[in-house]
Amino acid sequence: MTVVGPFGLSVRDESLEADVRAGMAAVEQGLHEATKSDVPFVTEAARHLLAAGGKRYRPLLVLLAAQFGDPDAPGVVPSAVVVELTHLATLYHDDVMDEAAVRRGVPSANARWDNSVAVLTGDFLFSRASSILAGLGPDAVRVQADAFERLVTGQILETVGPQDGTDAIDHYLDVIAGKTGSLIAVSGRFGAIMAGADGKIVDTLTQYGERIGTAFQLADDYLDIASDSHESGKTPGTDLREGVATLPVLHVLASEDRGADDRRLRELLTGPPLTDDALHAEALALLRVHPAMEQARRDTLRFADEARAILAPLPDCPAKEALAGLCDSVVHRAG
User: Fold this and answer.
1) pTM for this structure?
2) What digits encode the pLDDT tens for the residues 133-152?
3) CB 248 within 8 A of CB 263
4) What share of the chain is helix, strand, coil (3-state, %, to 5)?
5) Quick one: which of 150, 172, 153 has its CA closest to 161?
6) What DSSP assignment string belongs to 111-147?
7) Hey, is 297 helix, strand or coil?
8) 219 vs 51, which has greater pLDDT?
9) Residue 11 pLDDT more than 70?
10) Which of 13, 26, 137, 187 qualifies as a FRET site for 226, CA 20 to 30 Å off?
11) Per-residue model confidence (pLDDT) at position 161
12) For the CA atoms of 301, 303, 305, 310, what is the dihedral angle to 10 degrees?
């Protein structure tokens, strides 16, 4: 058994391992080239989060999806670079909106420089992704445009919050589907399309990406509360500090009163953003032992199981096994 890609993904087939390793190396080179500018400072800022690492989850999914067609087709690696550049750009913008201080274990771009530099660097990365995308044809541009619309809509929905009469948990899952699921779905779609896979396989991998993307984000939300900064690569409870209600918080607010600690937690969660360190630490400690955490974990596992079930019609092959392994990794991350 060998290990390739994020989360310690196990790949048991030597040919697939070689393909994925070569593909990921090519993607990394493509990212390095795409973040180079004639202006040295722009290069430095654009490579700031790239150099900090990252899971490269989206490019990996592109490469695995391409295994259901011709994995060496010329559009596979460029499309993987496009989705990762798009993801990187959103991180620069997210950190400005969240006023985050740490990303991937290093100071965020807005903390190292300022908000203007972070926003403009994200725009630079979007422009480079668009330039590469233009070479992949109008259909690829349309797929990316539709996904980007969903991504931005998800961010807007998160910003404005649920409307009257809308269930807060359903609203949050819609936000996650837009902000995270959309681009991961495109990763599966691009890999299959660029490799010339059958249309039914393209649809299956797109649906799989949507589900595993939601599970992946829910696992991140769970870890943001349950883990320390060493494990997650960012400051624990970032969303909590900024007043963003993720799934564990929503489950707390939807649950029955369990006593004094529960009432205190609700008071903290429904009050002003927890910018005070002592109040933030108190809320984090109470939340970590609340049954809502187990509920959020079960929701994460449910989406991972749905993703696994979607894979059933695909032909049995090492790539299908690896995609199922990504479901296992999400389960592992969520405890």
Assistant:
1) 0.88
2) 999 999 999 999 999 999 99
3) no
4) 75, 0, 25
5) 172
6) HHS-HHHHHHHHHHHHHHHHHHHHTT-HHHHHHHHHH
7) helix
8) 219
9) no
10) 187
11) 87
12) -170
